[in-house]
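Section 3.1: Structural characterization of target chains.
Under the original work plan, the team committed to producing a structural model for every single-chain target entering the pipeline before any wet-lab resources were allocated. The record below documents one such target. The sequence was received from the expression subgroup and is listed exactly as submitted; it comprises 88 residues.
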Amino acid sequence: ITHEDLWRAIDRLAANNGLSASGMAKKAGLHESTFNPSKRISAAGRPRWPTFEIINKAMEATNTSINEFARLVDIEPQDSKQTPRHSA
C-alpha cells in the first residue's frame, strides 16, 4: 500500500458516505483537519501516514468494514493506465 493509495481510500470512504474529509473527521470524533490534504505531507516534505486508530474511527463512523476499506485501497486511480496490482 502506498501513501497515495491509503489517502485516496480515505477520500473515497468520505465521498461514498456523502461526506467531505473534514465532515468525516468530525463524525469520527476527530479534529476536522485530520484528513485534510494539507496534513498529508509534513513541513519537511515527508509523507504523514494516518494511524490505524484514526482509520478505524473513520470506518466506525461510516459503518465500514475492514474488507470494504481494503477494497477502496485496492481500486486503481481513474486516470491510471497501469495494470491492476492483484497477485495471481
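Confidence is low (pLDDT under 50) at residues 80-88.
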